[in-house]
Amino acid sequence: MKPREFTGKCAICGKEMKGPQYGEGEFHDVCCKCFEIRFWDLIKQQVARGETYIINGSAYTRGHRGGFGNRTLRIKMLATGEVKTFEGTLWSNGQVPEDRLEQFPDNAEWYYEDETRKVWNTTERPY
Length: 127
Ligand SMILES: [Zn+2]
Description:
By secondary structure, the protein is of the alpha+beta class.
């Protein structure tokens, strides 16, 4: 990754910064106070690209193996009914902050092939 431009100021709040706070990646030009703002802005872009799923107000993204202890998890897209399977490749991004919930409506739900195996209620997570 080529080094990104750094102006010496937080790109969000304008606070003076001694240098990039979080390496050369997506967070290089924000201060620690604005980290969460950038984080959820990036999650929003991932949701728009169909890479991140919102289930019961929490965000989940496909990644490398090892997510949720390598558990196989299935989700069903609310708009299309498409079922996606993640063999240890689903990761949690955490709960959407309350003040951003309106921007992150649920777009998926947990999916169970066998409803009798569904031991969690709709507000809980299957892990
Ligand atoms: Zn800032």
